[in-house]
Amino acid sequence: MIIEQAKNVLTIEAQSIFGLIERIGPEFEKTVEMILKAKGRVILTGMGKSGLVARKISATLNSTGTSSLFLHPAEAIHGDLGMATPDDVILAISNTGHTSEINRILPMLKNMGVKIILFTGGLDSPMADFSDIVIDVGVEREACPLGLAPTASTTAALAMGDALAVVLLNQRRFNKDDFKRFHPGGSLGERLAFKVKEVMLTDEHIPTVPLGSKVGQAIEEINAKKIGATLITGKDQRLEGIISDGDLRRALINKKNIPEMKVEEIMSLSPKTIDEDETSAEALGLMELHAITHLVVVDEQRRVKGVVHLHDLLGREGFIANAGINSATRAHS
Amino acid sequence: MQVLTAPRGLIVDIITPFTKGGAIDGPGLRKLLNRVSPHAQAVFLASPHTGEGKNLHTEQRVELLEQAIPAIAQNPIPILIWVTQDNEAESRRTTIALKRVIEKRGYMGDLFWVDTPLYYHSNRGLPGLYKALCSVVGKPYILHNDPELINGLTKPLKRNNIRTAVLKELVSLEGITGLIFSGSLGRVHNYHNACRRRPHFRIYDGEELHFLDHPSTSGVVSVGANLAPKAWEKIIQSSLDLSAHNKDYPDHLQQIWELGDYLRDMRDLYLQAPAPILKEILSDMGIIETPVCTFQVEDTKESKSRLKELMTRFGDYPVRDC
Is A175 in CB contact (< 8 Å) with chain B? Predict the structure, then answer.
């Protein structure tokens, strides 16, 4: 009995999606064209379970290259309507087409010149009359007894949303690198669990010049190691200071003949440091706290062991792909 | 022919009330229709089981429609009437006789002929038959697929369901607007696939339990709504959201759940012999004159008494609103 009931539910839900296939037609094409032409965002709206579906579709659109946000219909009439602009496209979801909260906001959005797309099973509903494009996501039956909760109808709306997101993705020629740019989360979590010593730059990759060097030499080191700074070290590689791009800019305003000056004249004396056994998450927190992009890794005697850069914490490949930064060797690679 | 869209929602499978002498109980029928029609989207007259249509000859169905029209005119909702007889010629004669009634009465409301084609015809040639019928009878058809009814025939046909491929052809005819379906869930999925090209084609649940378990968005043909029209209306409103009523009150789900259980329990009690049991209760409620049926009635005392008890608990007995 239990297995039979479960099978019935899944069959009904599957049928609800099959039912959409033959109904995909010119209206769907118009929807895609409207969204591609829109200068603004796709604003999803819906109440109850349809609202949850709308949120998911909005998230899918965002992660596949279509800028989107969710507008709660009840909040909309209390001010949130202000987030919509005439450049946006509204995508409303209502199984019946009678949802009163959405019915209240559609005329206002229409007046603002916002284009309206509706996913509904209520093709003759007032909401359908107000919409520029109506996509039929009606189902033949619900899987839940007594219609206590929308089941097959929300599945159908969700599937149609996925169809829309994927078609838009293809139309925009969204590629693997774009996808990576919007999905740093998975790899980021892993990276932040690394110890600092596993991600820091070491040995010849550490930009460093000794005390007494000329600033010109420091500039060459900064250019060569490409992390926007160089360390100034004393006896036994003890950390004495740091010269960053910022220090150079500030020096340029006040000084003349910068390359001939000694590094001690412009270096910062107290660079932020971290122990090599701390986690990357701790390093990232320190960088955020002090609004800096690198930390010097030192031992108890302040001897330089390495340098960790923000890029190494967040994934250098992603930055390379998106910001044109060259790769650098990490300590563990 | 101007084609109507078949109604969506609750279709009440009306019992056919008789006087002691066996004539149609006109006042009883009108009382019953006045009671149920404000809560329904359509009424179904002379249905084969509950409406005893299997035993009603053409003249009785004519009389039934004539008696129903004045009551329906007060609360205008679509009428569905079963036109099937033992053979094709007789079915056509019944349909034409009923058509004359609405012409004579100048009835302007929506009316649909309900036909069970396999009762008198095989699957072969059905599209041709309906092509001819639609051009003659001037009102749209709703087909009726009921394997149990076909199995009960003395000479059952080879197939007791309309073949899906045949249905697909039938659906291409404008004059066929819906289907009342009894049978397995698997078959109804195939039927839905066959009908998808017609956006407003309705497939109604011909069995209440199907609707209560997995509601069809077209609606249901309900027997129990003769007794508890308000309860069925509430279930329909909740399942199909016809009026987008506010469901946000705190115990909505609990109320609907309890109401669903009530309707299931009711069904279990009248399932043994729907027409006689419903008539007994409606007669006791003073809505119809007698519980007379067109066939021999089994002993239904226990079911009747338990049904009354159940209805009393839910405030549907004794009658509050007729």
Answer: no
